[in-house]
Each structure stands twice: as C-alpha cells, then as structure tokens.
Amino acid sequence: MSMSRRLISRLSLRMSRAIVLVLAWLWVAGVGAVDTAHAQLGKPEGLYYKSWAVVIGIENYLLAPPIPGAVNDAKTVAQAFRQMGFEDVLEVYDKDASFRHLQQVFTNFLPRKVGRMDRLVVFYAGHAGVTLDADGKELGYLVPWDAQVNNVAKSVTFEQLKEFTRRSASKHTLLIIDAAVRGWETTAPQQLSLEGRLSPEEETERRAAQVITAGDKGEVTLRPGGKSLFTATLLAGLQGAADLNKNGWLMASELGSYLEKEVASASQGTQHPISARLDGDGDTVLIEGKKAAFVLGSGPQTPAERQQAAKVQYEQAYALLQEGKRAEEALERLNRAIEYNPAYGDAYVLKSYVRLEVLPNLDDALAAGQLAVQHASDNPDSYYTLGLIYEKRGSFAEAERALLQALKVNAGYQDVYFSLGTLYADHLKDQPKSVEAFRRYLELGGSHSRAKSAVSEADAALKR
Q1: Which CATH number does the domain 3-25+300-456 belong to among 3.30.365.10, 2.60.40.10, 1.25.40.10, 3.40.50.2300?
Q2: Which of 92, 133, 357, 460 has a Cα-to-Cα distance from 109 of 20 to 30 A?
Q3: Closest CA relative to residue 55, chosen from 87, 27, 89, 80
Q4: Residue 65: per-residue pLDDT
C-alpha cells in the first residue's frame, strides 16, 4: 500500500460517523434510479447534461398593439444566456411566435429534446392577460403574435404552461415573463438552507419549476427609452448583481428576490415583479460557483456553528479524496473548514497531505504542516507528514526531527520507521540507523522488500 493510501486510511480512523453518511449519499447519487425515457443515464459531470433556453420576443403583433423594443430586449437576453454557457438557445420572434408554433414548441419540440438532467429557461417578452376560468379563478395567459389581447382561446394559458412544466423531463425549469400578469396557483419559493445537509449538491438535485413575472396584474411595465426596465434589471442580475450572498452561485430564487426589490425601487413602487414556485422544492442554478462556496445566507455565526460547519467541510473533503477525484474541490473545502475554524488541526494535516501528494505545492504544504503540528500536536500524522515535506524540500535534518517526534506521539507507527529507514539510507548516509529503523518496521508487521533486503544484508554481514 502506498504512503498516500496508508495516510488516507489512517486519517479515516479519526473521522466521525458522518463521513459514512456522506459516502453513502455519494453512492446513491451515482447509481440511483434512472429515468430511461430520455437516454440520459447516470449523472453529468457538472450540474446539468445540457442547458436550454427558449427566448420569445413579440414586438409587431398582427392584431394587437406593438411593443417597441421587445425583440431587441429578447435578443439581448438570448445573447446573455449564450455567454452563461447555455448550449441551445432557441430564438422565436414576431411571426415565428404564432399560436401554432408556440404550441408546437411547448408540446412537441421541448418534450422531445430536453432530458431529465437538463435545465430549461423560457423568456417571454410580449403581451399577456388575465381572465377567469370556469371556477371563477384568475387565469393568466400569454398572447401569441397572431392573437388578440383578449382572445384567450388562441393564447397560451398559464394552465398549459403549468402542465408543460409538470410533464417536462428537465430537472430545473424557469419561466421568466416580461409582462405584468398573474393567474396561476403557486407556492412562494422556500428559502434554501444547507443546515444539516450532507452536501451542497443535494439542493441542486431537487426538481424545480419556477416562474418570475415582470409585474402584478393591472400594472404597467415600464419601458423607458424603448427598453424594458424589467429586462434591463434582469440582465444586470444575470451578470452577477443578483448573487445576493456573494458566494459565486446565482439561484433562481435569488434572481427573483433581486428583481422584486430592484424593479419596485426603480419604478418608484409602480411595478412589482412576482417570483413563485410551480412545482418541486429545488432551485434552478443560473450561475455555478465553486461547490465549497455553496453556503446560503450569512453562514454560521456562533463558535459552535462555525466548528460544526468546519467539520462538515472537512468530512466532505475527505470523502472526495476517498473517491480519488475532484481534488481541487477537496482543497477548497479544507480551506473553508480552516476559515470557519482556524484551530482545526486535522484540517491542516489533511491539507498538508493534499499539497504534498495530490496537488503538489511544497510551500503551501509546509505552511499547512507547521500549523498542523501547532494545532494537532496529539496527531502523529502532523509530524509524519511534516517530515515527508521536509524530506522532499531537501531539509533532511528537519525531516528526521519531525519523524522522530511522530514516534514520540505513537511509538508503534510502522510507516514512520520505514520513512526513517529510507531517509537515513538515501540522504543522511547513516547505515546503522537505517537498518535499525527498517528492522523495527518489519517487527511491527511491515513487508516492504527494501526493508527486508536491508535487514537481511546487515544480518548476513554480521555473520561473516
């Protein structure tokens, strides 16, 4: 077994039971039930297999008043989605946004194309209206290019859109409507929290169908200079202004809250966007930041909360290293653990190992190793790893002192004796000490051929 695997194995003995739960979650997420309807087996490398956007802009209606600037607004939004990494952006403008074509997009094209691990955002700029359904409830609708504002029969109703989101295979669906309208039964978006959760990715795995509208029923959507106030604010939000907690992630719930506040303020209280949830309890990710930064709200405040948050980050980093991949994320989590608890000795130990063996940076490794022995003096791995770092840096006397200190903490640490044996033989040129260290290593159950050979040769020399 290599030093890397032995050290990780030893570190595992210091882990709490929570790590078992983390590893179990990782297994379930990787091999759980699969919807075969769309031939997207397993999980994607990132959050989504594919990102889709449908951008609809209707400016020159056949039977309804024009909306100057609506198509330009929509084209700007389409470009923004492309810059955000959406691979497929379908643009539908004016005549192409007929009743028949929109029905085809929602009932045929998207259901055939969008898969179960995809995200879908629909943006609409055009007329909308509200009527009453058979039960007397308000029913909102979008007005296609060839429909009249008050002709519900030839419009795309919110009930149809709700049914579309229910039947859509996409993991996350977000409807953004640049129109003042309401008229669907919704639930307010819940405030997301990672408290007690094993992994930030769990939040992003939950299904979600969400909607944001530019205003409430009866309000006038402002278009100063022929440009939509709502769309201009939306674009600013998508560029990062809506990342309310500044953690690098932009969620649909954050975007909705940002638009509600900013548009109401800019319109001096005459236009009030609405953000709501249609289905599910997840949250659409619009901008993916670093996974270790996915902490919503103000973060842990009390010392106990910060220590617990540090422990969670440390355990998740360890789980990633167990998988043998995503080392950069593991390092991010270790740094976050240390940020939460600067005296977290075991986090320094694991970081020093990562910087020595996995993502080599000897300066960083040494700094972490020195803090490890300061804050985890009862952990022999603090000194063991520091000794290996010194050896690799060519500081052989310091390496010997650190390894001997590891044996003071744990006199039966087999691997330290082997490292001392190689250090004495290769660098300090002290053959007797090398043989002595190798002999003790073998007595403790070691089996490396180099140690066996060195001891065998020394014993044979004594007999001659």
Answers
A1: 1.25.40.10
A2: 133
A3: 89
A4: 95
Beta strand pairing call for 88-93 and 51-57: parallel
Q: Are strands 156-157 and 128-132 parallel, antiparallel or unpaired?
A: unpaired
Of 92, 93, 84, nearest in space to 119 by CA: 84
pLDDT in tens, 67-100: 999 999 999 999 999 999 999 999 999 999 999 9
Compute, in degrees rounded to 10, the torsion defined by CA atoms 218, 224, 225, 230.
Answer: -80
pLDDT tens, position by position, 226-265:
999 999 999 999 998 998 877 788 899 999 999 999 999 9
| 3 has a pLDDT exceeding 70 | no
Spatial CB neighbours of 347, under 8 Å, sequence gap ≥ 6: 310, 313, 314, 317, 334, 337, 338, 341
Q: Using the Cα atoms of residue 3, residue 400, residue 338 and residue 351 in order, give the sign of their dihedral.
A: negative
Do the bridges between strand 156-157 and strand 138-142 make them parallel or antiparallel, or are there none, so unpaired?
Answer: antiparallel
Query: CATH assignment of 47-287?
Result: 3.40.50.1460
Residues whose CB is less than 8 angstroms from the CB of residue 324 and which lie 6 or more positions away in sequence, other chains included: none
Question: Looking at residues 343-360, what average pLDDT do you find?
Answer: 94
Q: What is the mean pLDDT of residues 362-389?
A: 95
Q: Residue 388 and residue 402: Cα distance in Å, rounded? A: 9
Q: Tell me, yes or no, if the two domains 3-25+300-456 and 47-287 fold the same way.
A: no
d(CA 1, CA 229): 63
Residues in the chain: 464
Domain locations in the chain? 3-25+300-456, 47-287
List pLDDT tens digits, range 146-186.
999 988 889 999 889 988 988 888 999 999 999 998 876 54
Give 85-146 as a DSSP string: T-SEEEEEEGGGG-HHHHHHIIIIIHHHH--TT-EEEEEEES-EEEEE-TTS-EEEEE--TT
